[in-house]
Amino acid sequence: xxxxxxxxxxxxxxxxxxxxxxxxxxxxxxxxxxxxxxxxxxxxxxxxxxxxxxxxxxxxxxxxxxxxxxxxxxxxxxxxxxxxxxxxxxxxxxxxxxxxxxxxxxxxxxxxxxxxxxxxxxxxxxxxxxxxxxxxxxxxxxxxxxxxxxxxxxxxxxxxxxxxxxxxxxxxxxxxxxxxxxxxxxxxxxxxxxxxxxxxxxxxxxxxxxxxxxxxxxxxxxxxxxxxxxxxxxxxxxxxxxxxxxxxxxxxxxxxxxxxxxxxxxxxxxxxxxxxxxxxxxxxxxxxxxxxxxxxxxxxxxxxxxxxxxxxxxxxxxxxxxxxxxxxxxxxxxxxxxxxxxxxxxxxxxxxxxxxxxxxxxxxxxxxxxxxxxxxxxxxxxxxxxxxxxxxxxxxxxxxxxxxxxxxxxxx
Length: 412
Fold this sequence. Notes:
This protein is α+β, with helices and mostly antiparallel strands. Helices cover 51% and strands 9% of the residues.
């Protein structure tokens, strides 16, 4: 029996990156051998165990055979006669198909070190096409390592296109698509996730609302990049600079979905796209079973980013309407995320990347002023029932109006 450190831990050590997780493969052993040493079994598909002291995952070396479409259609074989090379051969990328022994020596049967040096994401074998999740994973790795100069090998990109054409991507379940997407949103360059999916045709299947944006024009005076799809990727880049929260980045991705359905006769204008963007965002979130905190923020950004951009022109009553509609009084932290997504939208235009966005600060000040209205004082004044709501609304609007006068903004 022998233990081997495998996968991402070996890859990241060779890249000089911090090692986050350590996974192990065990050769020459049976489940009973590990149980006898105190390992705790986990997982039902194939033999995986937790180390009794470290809690790290140890999996018996295994092979797999495709039995049906999708990523559930596999039969696994794990036994003492499965070699380390056999186990590594079933992995997705060459840079993930390396192992390390207890002396620190690297076992690299499929050229992972050479691809690290050449900065290439390359599949290990034709068996790559048996699991459509690998398309999402390779797009996510492209998002992770874009800053290091990594790109997808041409033959791997073609294999991914073939998989899409064969309908493999259609078999992906929503939960797994979202799992990989939210992880990609946390990477340094999530726009590469979108680009790689688009290059192989998977974006059209998984995110048709985003795919439709590419090739749709916008007014050049406001959007020098013109193309709505390119604008969305630029907004996503800016969101990364402004926030580590994946919720903000997801909202940036969805904020303009409605522009993909703008009638051709009114292009390049996109009048009324905000309401359509919200509807499409809701549908996308329902389809992928997106968590509520992501959905709510994305819907608010889609519906109200136009109002935030026009903060200088808004009447106090309209500002208050936006604050109430976005639930800013009860959830100010989420409203702050909305402002960050709007700032990313404003900066996500060619040549606008460093431009100031005072609208966000204006809204912060107007929210802070309206939050100072004392609800208890309204009640103590003898108002009751609906009168309390009316008085609270009037006093908040007046507080906003005073801030607008101080800032010399507003359409009052």
